[in-house]
Amino acid sequence: MGHILLFVNKLHAFAGIKLYLNLLCMIIISLLDGIGIFLLVPMLSLIGIFDVHLGNVSFTSIFDAMLRTIPTAYQLAVILGSFIFVISAQALLQKNQSVLDAKIQQSFMRSLRLDIYQALLKANWIFHLKRRKSDFQHILTSELGRVNHGTTLFLRLITSITFMVIQIGIALWLSAKMTLLVLLCGILLAFISRKFIKHAKEYGNKTTELSKNYYAGINDQLNGIKDIKSNLLEQAHISWFHKLNHDIESNVIEQVQVQSNSQLLYRVSSAILIGLFIYLSLKIFHVQSGQLMIIIILFSRLWPRFTGIQSNLEQMASTLPAFRNLVDIQKECESAVESIALDCLHRSNPFRVKAGIECRGVYFRYDQSQEFYALNNINLFIPAYRMTAIVGKSGAGKSTLIDTLMGLLRPERGEMSVDGIRLTEETALLLRSSIGYVPQDPFLFHTTIRENLMMMNPEASEEQLWEALQASAADEFIERLLLGLDSEIGDRGVRLSGGERQRLILARALLRRPSILVLDEPTSALDAENEKRIQEVLNRLKEEMTIIVIAHRLSTIRNADQVLVLEDGQIIQEGGYQQLSKEVNGVFGQLLRYQTEMNI
Ligand SMILES: Nc1ncnc2c1ncn2[C@@H]1O[C@H](COP(=O)(O)OP(=O)(O)OP(=O)(O)O)[C@@H](O)[C@H]1O
Q1: Nearest CA to ligand 1 atom 26
Q2: Which Gene3D superfamilies match (predicted)?
């Protein structure tokens, strides 16, 4: 329940006065509802429509006196007219309150969604490395939907409780003894129903787990659809999907069974109680028929409130795990938040590297409970306006080193500096704002080429776009497209070849006019002709920026000024390309030899 209260506090902080206005509306609606229904029968009996004895029902004397001032011929019309007025006023207010309710709720959900999304984007890279992406999708869609439902239920609960309290007040005024008896039964019912709430919470936990697996599985399988189809793995995945859906179905049916059991209990207990009440009223308390009529009306109004609240609580219990999930992820994101506000970064001037980047005794581990260091005592200097290449076998630590240089990963030990200034978490972020990054697995959005490029620099002119495209050797293939820059490139750029995607990503990175250009395997998907073009491009760009490039294809880095060879997280060789290629027994010489042999 603590988690729900946390959200209620948030809702309170968010909606403020509107929440109280909503509550006030609810109170007035409840009052009008109570007045309209409860008083109709006694009023009709006052003018002799019903032959019931109202006896000593205290409030009737007030209305009796009022009715006497009206001519008899108009009394029925006045009573029915008042009834219609009260109920219509209540309906009108109810309509407006429903809209206000929806507005509060929807704007609260919008702000919640935005908070979570921002928290996710502002969390540091190591946080993202440790989590499954599908968990975020699950939270931002399914879990937020359940929290939305939980918030609706909570607001409905407040309405029901307000309604009930007011109607209890009116009922107490009508007949204290009978009302207290109904209340006692209500409390008894709440006590018996505790186990239903507990079950609902358990099913809620199971729902969270199952929907998390569903999202993760779907995500993985859709990402690997080509793999599935090429390797004829369809049947295995369909079986997985079948089983998971069966589990989801069973969970929902069990949940509905528990809910319908509780509904059965409420209905049967309601019938028993009504029978018991009528019996007690007539045989033990000897109440008059007027009072009995009021008691029946009162009971039929109050009891559904009790049961409504009860089933509301059960449904809320099943949404509790989603609230907990959301709170946990937000807390985790907040504890992993990058120290500088992103909007500050946009306001600050771009950082330009003048001398170079230095690492001294840098160590990094992905898992601090393990002994394995992905970077182990790294000492290096990357000179500005030069091309530095990082090479090594698979798993040597190249990507980890690049991520550390970009400030995505923080060294566990050691120091990093730029132009002699020590890199803190804050300055590392500033440094990142001046980096253009071309990843190994280029990601493009499902939109036009133009929009994909403009994301990096929304103010770029047509001329600047083509300049970047020329620099990355992407101009020719775009000119050939029917819609040129306005061509849609499909999901993750699927309508382009691997090499075209790589060149487009390079153009996008160049649009930012970065001080440092970081390329992770920039030519892995290029043919020899385009590789040569990229080589020339990089050679030219050296004059404007510092270039760091990871390359398995060593031909790409032929013009590198410095080559760093990594093995097991350590730099085992460094020097110019020509110098290292002459050291035939060195790792670089070996790598070069393997590649030359493979190309023959
Ligand atoms: N997110 C991670 N969590 C745990 N260990 C990781 C993670 N990423 C990489 N590693 C480990 O760190 C080591 C260095 O990995 P890294 O990706 O830096 O190598 P690499 O040289 O870039 O390899 P490749 O050329 O295959 O991309 C490897 O042993 C790898 O298993």
Answers
A1: 394
A2: ABC transporter type 1, transmembrane domain (1.20.1560.10), P-loop containing nucleotide triphosphate hydrolases (3.40.50.300)
Q: Does ligand 1 come within 6 angstroms of the Cβ of 396?
A: yes
Name the residue at shortest CA distance from atom 16 of ligand 1. Answer: 397
Q: What ipTM is given for this predicted complex? A: 0.97
Q: Note the pLDDT tens digit of each residue in 378-413.
A: 999 999 999 999 998 889 999 999 999 988 898 999
* C-alpha span between 453 and 505 (Å, rounded): 8
pLDDT at residue 41, rounded to an integer? 67
Q: Per-residue pLDDT tens for 482-520?
A: 888 888 877 776 777 777 888 888 899 888 888 999 988
Q: Provide DSSP, 355-414.
A: SEEEEEEEEE-S-TTSS--SEEEEEEEEETTSEEEEEESTTSSHHHHHHHHTTSS--SEE
Residue 372 CB less than 6 A away from ligand 1 = no
CATH label, 443-513, candidates 3.30.930.10, 1.10.10.10, 3.40.50.300, 3.40.190.10: 3.40.50.300
- What average pLDDT does the segment 254-271 reach? 85
Cβ of residue 397 lying under 6 Å from some atom of ligand 1: yes
Q: Which two tokens stand for residue 230?
A: 């090429």
